[in-house]
Amino acid sequence: MQLAGLSNPRWALSQLTDGVFNGYISPVVLRESSNFVKLVREHNNEEVHDRFKQILKDYLIQQRSDVGGIALRIEQLVEDHTELRQGFKNLQMAVKATDFIKKIEGRLAVNDVKHYFEILKEFSTGQTSIVKMVEEMAVLFADHMDLFEEFCEFLPDSFNLSE
After folding, report:
1. Theoretical Cys-Cys bridge with 112: which of 27, 86, 108, 145, CB 3.0 to 4.6 Å?
2. CA dist., res. 92 & res. 47, Å (int)
3. Which of 32 and 64 is assigned the larger pLDDT?
4. Residue 48 domain flag
């Protein structure tokens, strides 16, 4: 199964336009959650599947109070399974994007938030290069370097900011 994800910069950066808005979980987060569960189920490793189900049961029993602990247990479960590890990274990326969107909506002016989405749209539709997009984001986040640094975490590992 071919996964979209961190190796695909247009997909990874599109995560920055989706998330949780007005209390609703975005289709991207739901899709990545579903994809990951399906990937575990189809992995042909009953032990991994059973351990994953137990982790989810524990999460529900704890009334969803230990998200970090559950994430750590899943990371440990998938660490020796490349495809599962990538699927979990995709899911984590979608959730981090949600938090990032909330930050920029809370700190930037409405027109700047609109401009942010316009820049991403131009990149995701192939109208601009990744270099041009990063340059525009640097200008947009000039007074918010922490946001720019966090934005850069969504860039593919192969992209080098120093060039």
Report:
1. 108
2. 23
3. 32
4. no
What's the total number of domains in the chain? 1
Would residue 18 be called left, alpha or beta, if left means φ above 0 and alpha means ψ between -120 and 50 degrees?
Answer: beta
CA separation for the pair 30, 160 (Å, rounded): 31
Extract the tokens encoding 51. Answer: 């351990």
pLDDT (tens digit per residue) in 4-23:
444 444 544 444 444 444 44
Phi first, then psi: give them for residue 2, nearest 5 degrees. Answer: -85, 130
Max Cα–Cα distance, the chain, nearest Å = 51
Q: Tell me which residue range forms the domain holding 26.
A: 9-43+81-152
Sequence-ordered strand ranges (E) for the chain: 20-21, 24-25
* Domain assignment present for 71: no
